[in-house]
Amino acid sequence: MRIDLHCHSTASDGTDTPAELVRNAAAAGLDVVALTDHDTTRGYGAAVAALPVGLTLVTGAELSCRIGGVSMHMLAYLFDPEEPALLAERELVRDDRVPRARGMVARLQELGVPVTWEQVARIAGDGSVGRPHVATALVELGVVRSVDEAFTEDWLADGGRAHVEKHETDPFEAIRLVKGAGGVTVFAHPGASKRGLTVPESAIAEMAAAGLDGIEVDHMDHDEDTRVRLRGLAKELGLLTTGSSDYHGSRKTVALGEYTTDPEVYGEITRRATGAFPVPGAGGI
What we know:
There is one protein chain. By secondary structure, this protein is α/β, with parallel strands linked by helices. It contains eleven helices and eight strands. Strands 1, 2, 3, 4, 5, 6, 7 and 8 form an eight-stranded mixed sheet that branches. The chain is globular and about 50 Å long.
């Protein structure tokens, strides 16, 4: 089985619609794909409706969190998307995205970049607006050559010249909320140091004690030494280890299925979840 547990659609900051995502996942030879848009599950219905035979869909979300002044992302799988407490927290985070993006546009304008809110809103479309949309605007304007180049201290990285803080959930609260909704939690790309400061291992140990289920190890932003270190940490803490593409369509160079999760780990995730269940494809539309 080929299993990719971290993918984005136009419901947040990917470039594939949810329907295109599942079709492309099937074409890439995947057996299981997780739709993990930022702080939202609103692409899930369209993905289910288009799900091809032979592909199983896992509902999920990538939750925006912060601990000790460091931003981090928590992947949540197979939770009840209508559970009130978790739904309210996701909406709180999403509602803060527009004023934050407007703030980044204003700071970029102060730095002499001719970006406009209309340009960023056009790029975001119906998705939850975020830094990748602002980064894409910088690429369009020729300020940077790629989205990755926009995530530096010169521009949009944490602490960067145009960075603006947003509401982010405490990860211990995120774990509690996801567990309360019957879901499973995995710390996304914990060693992605090129994105900025990373969470110390001592904090990951505290999260594990609070119920964190796993950490994402095989990821494009982790070099081999980082993967070895994270596997050792996971073994020490009794955490599951996943692998995922973090696919964003044309916004990033990584391909669907470029990194995958072991079927035994996927099986354990499904065994732990009680809020929702994977959906097998029925042919799509």
